[in-house]
Design brief:
Helix content: under 10%
Structural class: mainly beta
Strand content: over 45%
Order of helices and strands: EEEEEEEEEEE
Length: about 120
């Protein structure tokens, strides 16, 4: 079955960096666009970044543009999120998502990122 497993979260000071990874299995990874979302306490889940199946196009939420970079390695079936210049408002649980139509919509369990001094 489809599995998405996030890793790389942790605690970091403002201005620091983290790289999240999402290892995928159970589907043909190279055929699907992938996305990262996040959900902060008391807030709705929001799109952070997305990447097309071959990695040729990316998109970002306004709050992370210029600071975060999404990438993928189809040979390793993994999507990454490089997060630089982290701010306290980036504190959230970060989720990996694969979605295509109504039958394909899967989420990982998330990884917690805490930005605090």
């Amino acid at each position: 079955q489809v599995q998405l497993v996030e890793s790389g979260g942790g605690s970091v000071q403002p201005g620091g960096s983290l790289r999240l990874s999402c290892a995928a299995s159970g589907f043909t990874f190279s055929r699907y666009a992938m996305s990262w979302y996040r959900q902060a306490p008391g807030k709705e889940r929001e799109l952070v970044a997305g990447i097309t199946s071959a990695g040729g196009r990316t998109n970002y939420g306004d709050s992370v543009k210029g600071r975060f970079t999404i990438s993928r390695d189809n040979a390793k079936r993994t999507v990454y999120l490089q997060m630089n210049s982290l701010k306290p408002e980036d504190t959230a649980v970060y989720y990996c998502n694969v979605k295509s139509g109504v039958l394909m919509d899967y989420w990982g369990k998330g990884t917690l990122v805490t930005v605090s001094s």
